[in-house]
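REQUEST FORM: STRUCTURE PREDICTION
Request ID: SP-0412
Submitted by: Lab K.M.
Chain count: 1
Length (residues): 150
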Amino acid sequence: MSEETKAVVRRYFEEGWNKGNLATIDELVSPGCVWHKPDREQAVGPQAVKDAIERYRRAFPDLHCTIDGQLADGDTVVTRWSVEGTHAGELMGISPTGNRVDCAGIVIHRFVGGKIVEAWDSWDKLGFIQQLGVVPAAQEATAYSPRTRR
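STATUS: Completed
RESULT:
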């Protein structure tokens, strides 16, 4: 089951986030899926995932997610990911800056019957908004890039 669930997560990122194929999300995410997010209330169902994908792809039309590593155990897949893109649209009340961002995170997906039923997401939101220029970055933080820390 581990290889199959890892493949589902790869498809989730490639088809959903990178290509914006939202129909794929309906195939991969259970209707009752709970998405635990540290910066917001939890979201439920495929529509919440599709809304997030649309929101970020509008703000970053060249958005590209990369899977940097995956581990699977039983019904759980842990994925270390990174994302990059150019801020060309409004996001979180932030007008387009034209800034290029590069940040990383980890998501844990739990599966039942081959579909994602629960997700826990954690990412470097502070670094993200610092790269947008909304929050000043500390000197040492400006040199950080998830691409150079693998």
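NOTES: The chain has one domain: 2-142.
Reviewed by: T.R.
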